[in-house]
Amino acid sequence: MPLNTQLTKLLGIRIPVIQGGMQWVGLPALAAAVSEAGGLGILTALSQPSPQALREAIRKTRRLTSKPFGVNITLLPTINPPDYEGYARVAVEEGVRIFETAGNNPGPLIKYFKSQGCIVLHKCTTIRHAKSAERLGVDVLSIDGFECAGHPGEEDIGGLVLLARAAKELKVPYISSGGIADGRGLAASLALGASGANMGTRFMCTVESPIHENIKKKIVSSTERDTVHIFRTLHNTARVFKNKVSVEVVKIENRPGGAKFEDVRDLVSGQRGKLVYENGDPDYGIWSAGICIGLIDDIPTCKELLERMEREAEEIIGKTASLITPRSRL
Ligand code: NAD
Fold this sequence. Notes:
This protein is of the alpha/beta class. It has 2 domains: about 5-210 and about 295-315, TIM Barrel, CATH 3.20.20.70; about 225-280, no CATH class. Helices cover about 40% and strands about 15% of the residues. It has helices spanning about 5-10, 30-35, 50-65, 85-95, 105-115, 125-135, 160-170, 185-190, 200-205, 215-220, 245-255, 260-270, 270-280, 300-320; strands at about 15-20, 40-45, 70-75, 100-105, 120-125, 140-145, 175, 195-200, 225-230, 240. An 8-stranded parallel sheet has the order 1-8-7-6-5-4-3-2. A two-stranded antiparallel sheet has the order 9-10. Strand 7, helix 8 and strand 8 form a beta-alpha-beta unit. About 50% of the residues are buried. The structure holds nicotinamide-adenine-dinucleotide.
């Protein structure tokens, strides 16, 4: 029995799972593999050095799959401010119709995508932000709990409470994000009223993920205790893998008098983090990881992963339903 939800209908996908934007990881090979496997693959715009390079990446993805895929644009502080509008325009010109937005002040971008008839999924870490994104006309909210990799916001609310609040307060469909790595997480998300789940870290550790094998093996051997928050004191909190560099960053942030971004800039630079994925040294720089890292113990293909999740979720939903004894038989 397929898991048909508002999300699968809206996006034209088979399995209600999205591979959310991931800097340096959301490249054509992975996005296409997820879409081919029945989920929604997403290219991360800022992983491309220019809008023109994004155009090429979109064309490459289309050569790899005829299924729908999306593009992520994340608006957060950056060392070199990107041409967000240029990336957005190119993706629309190339016929992309599904966008994932995230970060600060997404209003103009959302307005632009909606004016072009696109579907917008917006990532939020609070119900307050979710409601204002709803007013901006987004189609789906991606509710990002404290468990997530990357930027969880500053309010530290776990997915369980955020999603239950979303069920009570939101009018548009929403998906869970943060802490999901298996069919249990997907079934739990659906039980919490979500129309599907977003996964990042889990997809990093698949055959088609474009990162060094050593990092995939490191993910497999790590536990839920192996991530840490950096940038807490700079109000740009990010959950990353706990390694020599991230521990050093936290130490600098916590020294008397605090730290300015410039004090950690060289340690945290995305260009340095990118080399982790290329050279396979997990201690070389900063790389994002969510606490669901503790649930990951293999490196499947995207197809194996999604089929397994679908099967597990269906079994759990079936078992849960069988717990209910009709009142007439009590
Ligand atoms: P970068 O090299 O510009 O910056 C490295 C890190 O420092 C990022 O986390 C960034 O948010 C943070 N940062 C930069 N300037 C800052 C400042 N003045 N104050 C506080 N923090 C600051 O980043 P990058 O690796 O080239 O990535 C580009 C952008 O994409 C960043 O904003 C990053 O956070 C964001 N990002 C996107 C995704 C995604 O899913 N699309 C995932 C991770 C990061």
